[in-house]
């Protein structure tokens, strides 16, 4: 009896070892993402951006040399997709991954943003899971979601056959949703749990405006802590729009996505742009 039990235990252990080795082999065979911003976060690194508000290809291309990603803002600017296409086409293989903040979770906005070459979409003021689901619905190709096939600059930026964009775009795309109100805070776990949502970030300035609590108050810290904990519990990445929260805050060690902040090499833009402005180089 004992011999049988030992044998069974040994066989079970060997089986587990085999499964583990297969899983490790699959992980080893899985290629690194060409969305380097996403890969850095998966590797446990914080990422920072510059913010582009104006249709200026020369300024865009210079800034794009130095940052993890470009926060291209369509919510608070007059940029259109033609402007963005011209900027991305001017330096199609820059270091900064193009991420576009659209003004709403609408089909035409998200599909044109991905067709123009964005590997990430930021959706502002997400108060409930329905808005998060609507954004996720249009971001990725079937069978994952409902993005339709279209022509666009994405075929130039990511058209190398070795990348196999059509079949790898889902893994290399980021859906970032912003929680900016007390309602969004209350619904944070449901929002973060939506399939297709990758990152949940605090819209720090607007959270102050919408709730009336300054960022230095215990009430504010309690709100962002709840969103952080709900996001982590849902297995997603947490971040904050204000890069000043990248250090010196209890949540800093597990916050990975920020708007603006330090460049990778110490370069500073000639003038600040967007919330937060320029910052010292990464340590």
Characterise the protein shown here.
The chain has 283 residues and is of the alpha/beta class. It has two domains: 1-30; 33-279, TIM Barrel. The protein is 42% helix and 14% strand. The chain contains twelve helices and ten strands. The chain has helices at residues 2-29, 36-42, 57-64, 81-90, 107-115, 129-139, 154-157, 165-172, 182-186, 188-192, 204-211, 218-233; strands at residues 49-52, 69-73, 97-101, 120-123, 174-179, 199-202, 237-242, 257-259, 261-262, 278-279. The strands form two sheets. It has an eight-stranded parallel β-sheet with strand order 1-2-3-4-5-6-7-8, sandwiched between helices. A two-stranded parallel ribbon has the order 9-10. Helix 5 (107-115) links the parallel strand 3 and strand 4 (120-123). Helix 3 packs across helix 4 and helix 5 packs across helix 6 (129-139). The longest helix is centred in the first third of the chain and has 28 residues, at 2-29. The radius of gyration is 21 Å and the shape is globular. The model is unreliable at 1-28 and 273-283 (pLDDT under 50).
Task: Pick out its properties.
disordered N terminus, single chain, TIM Barrel, 283 residues, 2 domains, two-stranded parallel sheet, alpha/beta
Helices and strands in order, then pairings?
Blueprint: H1 2-29, H2 36-42, E1 49-52, H3 57-64, E2 69-73, H4 81-90, E3 97-101, H5 107-115, E4 120-123, H6 129-139, H7 154-157, H8 165-172, E5 174-179, H9 182-186, H10 188-192, E6 199-202, H11 204-211, H12 218-233, E7 237-242, E8 257-259, E9 261-262, E10 278-279
Helix pairs in contact: 3-4, 5-6
